[in-house]
Amino acid sequence: MMAALPSLCRFTTILGSCFSTPSPRSFKIRVRPHLPICLTTRKLSSSSPMSQPSSQPAGATKTESARAENDQEDMLVQYVVLRRDLIESWPLGSVVTQGCHASVCAIWSHKDDPHTLQYCSPETIDSMHKVTLEVKGETQILNLSEKLTAGGIAHKLWIEQPENIPTCLATKPYPKSIVSVFFKKLKLCK
């Protein structure tokens, strides 16, 4: 407790200087010395999605880094693929709705699958991983669906009715190491 006191005083001094001039928008911070203070930072790179964990801490060993990469490669993920031509011509909400339809249908159709059960379990439901990609148009989405079918990848090609338009597709949850090869050439949907 005594060793933490000097750093706590420094912390309080720094905070005090930040909030020394009262204003209508200032905040008062109460520091309780009997509670441990833990400040953490997380570095996000522009190439990694925000929902993904950042790189290993500075003190991580090579073994820990390799284990983290394997965990990242084997995480359960659901791929959702939208058509770029519809994104440019339909209202955004309509296109998002199509992706939601495909995603829910793919999960519900495989609700008893072990990967789906794990993906939707109470322990992991708040940390789902989805990758949303795009193809140019109808021909490309149909070709992708055929390729996934030939590769044994369970998915739902959503066909909007009554227009009978294939709008998007979604896979059931898979370990990333199994399914990512089918989507390597596609761009992230932006």
- Count of beta strands: 6
Number of distinct helices: 7
Helix content: 25-40%
Give the overall shape, derived from the CA principal axes: globular
What fraction of residues sit in β-strands?
A: 15-25%
Radius of gyration: 23 Å
Mean pLDDT over the full residue set: 77
Low-confidence segments:
1-24, 26-57
Query: Termini, distance in Å?
Result: 50 Å
Largest sheet composition: 6 strands, mixed
Please write the string of helix (H) and strand (E) elements. HHEHHHEHEEEHE
Helical/strand content category: alpha+beta
EC number: 3.1.1.29
GO molecular function: peptidyl-tRNA hydrolase activity
Keywords: Hydrolase
Pfam families: PTH2
Structure, described:
The protein has 190 residues and is α+β, with helices and mostly antiparallel strands. It is 39% helix and 16% strand. It is built from seven helices and six strands; from the N terminus they run ααβαααβαβββαβ. The protein has helices spanning 4-18, 62-74, 84-89, 92-109, 114-119, 138-150, 176-179, and strands at 76-83, 130-135, 155-160, 165-171, 174-175, 187-188. Strands 1, 2, 3, 4, 5 and 6 form a six-stranded mixed beta sheet that branches. A hairpin with a 4-residue loop joins β3 and β4. The protein is globular, with a radius of gyration of 23 Å. The N and C termini lie far apart (50 Å). Residues 1-24 and 26-57 have low confidence and may be disordered. Residues 43-69 are annotated as: Disordered. Keywords: Hydrolase. It comes from Theobroma cacao.
